[in-house]
Amino acid sequence: MSTLVKYCLGIIVIAFVVAQLADKSTNVSGESAATSGQSANIVVQSSHIGSGGGVLMRAPDGHFYANARVNGVETRFLVDTGASMVALSPADARNAGIHVGKDDFKATVATASGHARVAGVMIDDIAFGDRYESDVPAAIIQNYRGVSLLGQSYLSRFSSVSIENDRMTLN
């Protein structure tokens, strides 16, 4: 495995921890999702998506979320500017027609929850609003049930990504 691939997969560790924290977020009533028996249901608030970019509003848990189409299938993402790659849950990958076998999970990364195995893949296309990008490197995290991560392998294709107060602007 190349050094670049090992480096990129290693960076996913940070993104994986962020996603784990997002899954343990609090709901509007202030109860944690784990104690209330509900999953965290974050609504993506977009004031504008189009002409190549969009504006996302910060969710109550402090993160930014976006819905994008992966190979034409609507997918919910935590936007993670610190992640080097897009990281998909196995369910989101399957829904988007990306299939990997047990033997494809060749790399292991350390996370706050223990070790996780990942498989490197290439996404045919990701669309956010009317912005379409093809051949996006990504990783699938084996046995991961959290929200997928929209990392730099996609975000770096925008001319700018900025955060001001509670707004993330992608241009």
Observed structural traits:
single chain, 171 residues, alpha+beta, seven-stranded mixed beta sheet, four-stranded antiparallel beta sheet, globular, disordered N terminus
In short:
With 171 residues, this protein is of the alpha+beta class.
The unreliable regions are: 2-8, 13-48
User: What proportion strand?
Assistant: 35-45%
Radius of gyration: 15 Å
The share of residues in helices is 10-25%
Largest sheet: 7 strands, mixed
- Which structural class is indicated by helix and strand composition? alpha+beta
Q: Average pLDDT value?
A: 77
Number of strands: 11
Shape: globular
The helix count comes to: 4
In whole angstroms, the N-to-C terminal distance is 34 Å
Give the H and E element order: HHEEEEEHEEEEHEE
Structural write-up:
The protein is of the alpha+beta class and 171 residues long. The protein is built from 4 helices and 11 strands; from the N terminus they run ααβββββαββββαββ. The protein has helices spanning 3-23, 33-36, 90-95, 152-155, and strands spanning 46-50, 53-57, 65-70, 73-79, 86-88, 107-111, 114-128, 131-141, 148-150, 161-164, 167-170. The N and C termini lie far apart (34 Å).
Q: How do the strands and helices of this protein lay out in sequence?
A:
Blueprint: H1 3-23, H2 33-36, E1 46-50, E2 53-57, E3 65-70, E4 73-79, E5 86-88, H3 90-95, E6 107-111, E7 114-128, E8 131-141, E9 148-150, H4 152-155, E10 161-164, E11 167-170
Parallel strand pairs: 4-9, 5-8
Antiparallel strand pairs: 1-2, 2-11, 3-4, 3-7, 6-7, 7-8, 10-11
